[in-house]
Amino acid sequence: MGYDLIIKGGTLVTASDTFVSDIAVEGGKIAAVGAVKANDAKSVDARGCIVVPGGIDVHTHFDMPFGGTTTADDFKTGSTGAVFGGTTSIIDFAIQKKGETLTKALDGWHEKAEGKCAVDYSFHMIVTDLPENQVKEMDKLVDEGISSFKLFMAYPGIFMLDDATIFRALLRTKENGGMICMHAENGGVIDVLVQKALAEGKIEPKYHALTRPMSAEAEATRRAIALAEMAEVPIYIVHLSAASAMEEVRKARERGLSVYAETCPQYLYLSYDDYERPGFEGAKYVMSPPLRPKGNEERLWKGLAQNALQVVSTDHCSFCMKPKDKKPGKELGLDNFSKIPNGAPGVETRMLLLWDAVQKGRLSPNRFVDITSTTPAKLFGLYPRKGHLSPGADADIVLINPKKKHTISAQTHHTNVDYNPYEGKTVEGSIRDVFVRGVHMVTAEKLLGKTNHGQFLRRMPRT
Ligand code: URP
Ligand code: ZN
Ligand code: ZN
CATH number for the domain including 216? Predict the structure, then answer.
């Protein structure tokens, strides 16, 4: 057989199985899994390595105008971080400006990404404006392979939609097979709390968290689920942070509803205490929803293991602490926490942090694959092309060296942001090799592939 590449003797881990095997690759696809005879194909020795399907991060914000500036990472730098971190596909968020058609907004995001992405990519569409006579435009996007939409229950005046508009969009996904991804925080309540805090002279970064209580997230999650139940469609809750919100998801799932939720590494590894760091350092952690008090993360870890949460994405939304490349950063909020651009980086560290959780016994290796790759692929119309190590799938393959430690640092990361929220943390396991559609993109922390290798992924609707 004329294979292009054979990955020999690794321990393959899928969402359901673990076994020692070779993988043969031909034409960018997995051609065989099993004992493969060496021929003149390039051979990579994977003995001693864990071999997993490439990570799929379904929540990134590259080149996004937000909070009076634009994210520090564009598609080139963000996707370079992704591939070094073992993520081979991303789904980014395109934004509809008010008054703009969804198609026009999508064209704009294609322009930002095309020829600039190292990994395969797709978009969700953030809908900010959906008059009744434009609801059917959602169908056009689904036909174009954009089969998911993000709606906001927070950020009044910017992104927030009312319940009627949310309900209209949910109803339409019954017809077109799309999925609504919900930012579930009660934006009205938060706005009142923010204005009150500012009027009392409370301006430091920690007030970002103190004005976004967990009950504002739990209430919106409950309401989002109720709206989806009334529309009789599935719903996906993004960046879930509060355990009380997770309990709403769990209860709905126990009632048989198709409710799904992702959390992010920051909610598993960091906490409210990070806002109490000296000076303005807490701004590094200003994101929405905010980090929660210690103890909350233990409940999320349990929920992940028990499938109350189904996915870990990153919500990679990077802003520097100081202006860089002519873009303002977090310093915009030095005198007013509500002006700190919301978001933090994470696309490069998700796989490392979660594999560390496997090493520490918090997750099984199979669960790691499920939450970082297989379930994201299934929920967002990429399976079985992505998310699995089986013949016919894209050869998106990651080799993890479980014996090599890695210390996370802004000095060595590849994204364009001047800090790392996990600075100095040493994890057990490092990303040794990364293949995207059979192309050897990374080995031993060196980039081999091109940063424009990524292709647009046209995703399937729900069936
Ligand atoms: O703080 C965050 N999460 N920034 C990105 C925008 C969003 O809501 O996902
Ligand atoms: Zn959000
Ligand atoms: Zn986000």
Answer: 3.20.20.140
Q: Please name the residue whose Cα sits nearest to atom 9 of ligand 1.
A: 315
Q: What are the C-alpha distances in Å from 255 to residues 45, 233, 249, 250?
A: 47, 14, 10, 9
Element housing 150 (H / E)? strand 148-152
What is the dihedral sign for C-alpha 198, 204, 209, 210?
A: negative
Residues with CB under 6 A from ligand 1: 61, 183, 239, 287-288, 315, 317, 342-343
Phi, psi values for residue 403, rounded to 5° = -95, -15
- Domain with 190 in it: 55-367
If one residue of 287, 338, 347 were mutated to test the ligand 1 pocket, choosing by the most ligand atoms within 8 A of its CB, it would be 287
Is 460 part of any domain?
no
Let me know if residue 448 belongs to a domain: no
With respect to residue 390, please indicate whether it lies within any of the assigned structural domains: no
Identify residues whose C-beta is under 5 A from ligand 3, the ion: 315
pLDDT tens-digit map of 46-69: 999 999 999 999 999 999 999 999
Q: Could you identify the atom of ligand 1 that is nearest to the CA of residue 155? A: 8
pTM of the model: 0.98
pLDDT band at 40 (very low <50, low <70, confident <90, very high): confident
Number of separate domains in the chain: 1
pLDDT, tens digit, 9 for 90 and up, residues 409-452: 999 999 999 999 999 999 999 999 999 999 999 999 999 999 99
In a domain, 36, yes or no: no
